[in-house]
Amino acid sequence: MTAHTMFEPPETPGVDTSEAIAWHLDALVALAPSLAPMRERAGRVEPRINPKGFAGMAKVICGQQLSVQSAAAIWARFEALPGALDPQTYLALDEDTVRQSGFSRAKFQTLGAVAAAVGAGDLDLAHIDRLPAEEAIARLTAIRGIGPWTAEVYLLFCAGHKDIFPAGDLALLKAAQHGLAITTRPTIAEMIDIARKWSPHRSAAALLLWRYFAVVMRREGVLTS
User: Fold this and answer.
1) Which of 8, 42, 94, 225 lies in disulfide reach of 211, CB 3.0 to 4.6 Å?
2) Is 71 in contact with 101 (CB distance < 8 Å)?
3) How far apart are CA 158 and CA 152, in angstroms?
4) Phi and psi dihedrals of 188, rounded to 5?
């Protein structure tokens, strides 16, 4: 059985500690009892926190459309580049240098757009981290090359935002179909509608579904195409 938390925050917390996630999951299961069996089978859900700010956004952009293993190898090379993790010094790096680490041209340009926006004062990542989900996503996706998935993953894994659900993530769609016994895999629009009912605990729901995907679906060989 899943152990429930005695954690009592003064206000709704982010999802950057195990205790906070457990608190959110208690509230989430009370709100949506259909998730209780998934929580029991998934077990303990841990935080997945990357660096905040520009460095965190760089890591998320690095991982776009890549396997975990490929992204980790490229990131190790990229973060070793002098100045790569600071927006001002990143802009001084030439494209060949960055691309030799494994970044595509599109990723080089996208991170350059982020660095330029930060440098011009048009993008304050520390402020965006504290905005409501929809407003934060809108601010980030206004930057050329930043799509909804990138914005949502940054807010969830780097900012520890409490109410983000990356509905376009394939693993989440598969986990929702299996765990909620949905006949066909939800579309992104359908997943957004389903997750909307889980607000303000959507980040914990996403972490739960990822954990369920990893420990239940992989173990039982039910990874559907």
Assistant:
1) 42
2) no
3) 10
4) -60, -45
CATH, residue 198: 1.10.1670.40
Domain boundary among 158, 187, 212: 158
Which two three-digit tokens encode residue 218?
A: 């992989």
> Which of 113, 139, 158 delimits the end of a domain?
158
Range of the domain at 170: 18-48+164-220
Do 58 and 80 fall within a single domain? yes
In whole angstroms, what is the distance from residue 53 CA to residue 112 CA? 14
Name the band, by pLDDT with cuts 50, 70 and 90, for residue 66. Answer: confident
pLDDT band at 5 (very low <50, low <70, confident <90, very high): low
**pLDDT at residue 48 tops 70:** yes
Going by the DSSP 8-state scheme, the letter that residue 184 receives in this structure is S
In the chain, the percentage of residues whose pLDDT exceeds 90 is 76
- What b/e readout covers 129-146, taking b as 16+ CB neighbours within 10 angstroms? bebebeebbebbbebebb
Examine the domain organization and report whether 36 and 97 are in the same domain: no
Q: pLDDT exceeding 70 applies to what percent of the chain?
A: 91
**CB of 122 closer than 8 Å to CB of 139:** no
The token duo for 153 is 């993953």
Query: Is residue 159 within 8 Å of residue 14, measured between CB atoms?
Result: yes
Same domain, 125 and 211: no
Residue type for position 119: G
Within a domain: residue 182? yes
Max CA distance (Å), the chain = 53
**CB-based contact 151:142 (threshold 8 Å):** no
